[in-house]
Amino acid sequence: MRIKYNAPTTLTFTLISGLVLLLSGTLLPGLTQSWFSTPAPFRANQAQDYVRLFTHVLGHANIEHYLSNFSFILLLGPILELSYGSLSLLLMMAVTALVTGGLNVFLFPNTILLGASGVVFMMILLASFTNFNKGEVPLTFILILVIYLGREVWNALANKDSISQFAHVLGGLSGSFFGFLKPRKKLE
Predict the structure, then answer these.
(1) Where in the sequence is the domain holding 175, given as residue range(s)?
(2) Using CB atoms within 10 A as the burial measure, which of 69, 95, 143, 188 is most buried?
(3) pLDDT, tens digit, for every residue of 28-48?
(4) Residue 23 belongs to a domain
(5) CA 127, 84, 79, 136: dihedral to nearest 10 degrees?
């Protein structure tokens, strides 16, 4: 029996994020703040700030933050790669990163955002679309929308720190959009 690199987008994302966390915690202490969090404030004349709109999903504050995100990503990612394809999932993750990062710097210009929780919520909502037919709205999608996004909206209204909930809601809305828009691969 051999080990198979079965979900290249999911596994590569997991490994790169883990490496960023390791390097930031040891050899390169400022790495996450410099390259793997949203800029605050955004500087339109700095190419690095545009890159960070995508790369903030690779940075994590600590091991608990990393583990909470990647326990979901490692669970859902392979299923989504099988259903939508590795490249399509990578593009969905990149768009979700840009949406959450871009709107964060626009709406919360002095607040830093980092971590893959927006991608997690995109995957959670997108996963509810893996077994539905055209012209149908899966009941699982509706329930997940109410439970996961409803909780985040409630938390955003109840707490003063609504930045992370904002990213969760945007990620979930991105997953919903992709689920309605992107057809699944034909499985053999």
Answers:
(1) 8-181
(2) 69
(3) 999 999 999 999 999 999 999
(4) yes
(5) 40
